[in-house]
Amino acid sequence: MPNPIDCRDGLAALPPVLLEHLRQADEVLVLTGAGVSAESGIATFREALNGLWARFDPAQLATAEAFVEDPVRVWSWYEWRRAQVLAAQPNPAHRALADWGRQHGRLRLVTQNVDDLHERAGSREVIHLHGSLHAPRCFACARPLAAPALPESAEQLVAPPLCPACGGLARPGVVWFGEALPAEALASAWALAERCDLCLVVGTSGLVQPAASLPGVARQQGATVVRIDPQPAADFKGDWQLLGAAGMILPALLERL
Ligand code: BV8
């Protein structure tokens, strides 16, 4: 694997052969993580805990067990995150991916994120592997529920609303650790990884399975795998690592295609 390419000051160091791969790609899979929303002011998953939440580990809050143990704490954490997303705007990374999708036609976006910033930037048919902050459902009967009005203060503890049909507690419409991913979303993402010829991995630490296996599936069948992140990944098994912020690199790449 070639050394990471420092793109923090622009793409001058980009090898022409990489640009050719990007220009010639027939079918593009883009896998995004929390880093693509970082420049919209949304704390990444492993930073998603400041202020009131600083003393919690996200993986301890993002579980059904944590919700059963303390529904108010878990629901309040998600409402705090949902308020952040509603107050945020898509950033140049989201917009560049939406533009690329419109121009290319055979680019599919698979995200681990639970925000709707890709859609608000104009991306279509986004595959959400880990659900959405905007789609609560009943914890007991799984009926979809309307998202309630947000609490006054971003750090206010609020109780989850009750399901009008069965009286169960509302839960966030996200996939918690230990829960299965939506079967259709995972199957679509897997099929894309098995047939794409370019896989862009943007803003993810690659720690969470099964999403983290998708780039390896793409590489296995011969796709070119390009990672975009300010931090290099020592265990990255793809072809190119571009070091820098997605909000700078993606628009600059798009200009060169
Ligand atoms: C499953 C939704 C099986 C919730 C998330 C023991 C028990 C059970 C399961 C397991 C276990 N051990 C392992 C597992 C599997 C487990 C797992 O992978 N655990 C990990 C921690 C080891 N996976 C699961 O549990 C999955 N389910 O396996 O089910 C099953 C099967 C059948 C039937 C029943 C069960 C479910 C995983 C989904 C968990 N839910 N999110 C919520 O959001 O609260 S995952 C959560 O972390 C996020 O959604 C995100 O998807 C994921 C990874 O985070 P990242 O997006 O990568 O964010 P992170 O902060 O880590 O990194 C940000 C990156 O951005 C960094 O690299 C940073 O440098 C970069 N960055 C920063 N700024 C920028 C930038 N990049 C570009 N530009 C910038 N400006």
From TrEMBL:
Enzymatic class: transferase
UniProt function note: NAD-dependent lysine deacetylase and desuccinylase that specifically removes acetyl and succinyl groups on target proteins. Modulates the activities of several proteins which are inactive in their acylated form.
Active site, UniProt feature: H130 (proton acceptor)
Protein name from the UniProt record: NAD-dependent protein deacylase
Gene3D superfamilies tied to this protein: SIR2/SIRT2 'Small Domain, TPP-binding domain
Entry-linked PANTHER family: NAD-DEPENDENT PROTEIN DEACYLASE SIRTUIN-5, MITOCHONDRIAL-RELATED
Principal subcellular localization: cytoplasm
Catalytic activities: N(6)-acetyl-L-lysyl-[protein] + NAD(+) + H2O = 2''-O-acetyl-ADP-D-ribose + nicotinamide + L-lysyl-[protein]; N(6)-succinyl-L-lysyl-[protein] + NAD(+) + H2O = 2''-O-succinyl-ADP-D-ribose + nicotinamide + L-lysyl-[protein]
Entry note: cofactor: Binds 1 zinc ion per subunit.
Binding site for NAD(+): Q112, N113, V114, D115, G203, T204, S205, A246
Domain Deacetylase sirtuin-type: 4-257
Naturally occurring in which organism (per UniProt): Pseudomonas flavocrustae
Chain sites annotated for binding substrate: Y78, R81
Swiss-Prot/TrEMBL cofactor(s): Zn(2+)
UniProt KW keywords: Cytoplasm, Metal-binding, NAD, Transferase, Zinc
Subcellular location: Cytoplasm
Residues bound to Zn(2+): C138, C141, C163, C166
